[in-house]
Design brief:
Length: 158
Amino acid sequence: MKFFLLFIISISLLWGGCYPLRKKFVKKKPRMKPPVYLNLGENSPSFCKEVYLDCYLFIRGWLSEVIDELREGGNVKREKRAIDEVLHNLEVLKSFFNQEGKQKLMQFYKKVEEIKKEIESKLILSEVERLVIRRKVEIMEREFERNFNWRATQQWRE
């Protein structure tokens, strides 16, 4: 009788209980969202104000991030990442301008590259070096805000 009762319980668990139990403990595969591509190359058909302003704000934000990290004596990896993001967004911004605007932007790009080299040249920066670099970045941030805002760039748009 006990054997028969155990047999019935095990069969009922196999048919009804194992699948939900197994499903509960099996890891589900993550669903991948399809990537979104935005073409901002040289052949971009129109100048989109929203995209320009997004790039402009990203650059200002990443420059502020560099300043904050230098002020706090913070993380070198974050400083490098912020500088790399500034350079990337400057590349995107370059596609919006005519030749004169690209030349102005490339001058600014070279200044950012110099700051990157200064940060990467030493493993640990002293407080004086951090202060000097931070002042340079603050000046660059003000220069960027003055020379590359929406109104100032109207003459350079294609």
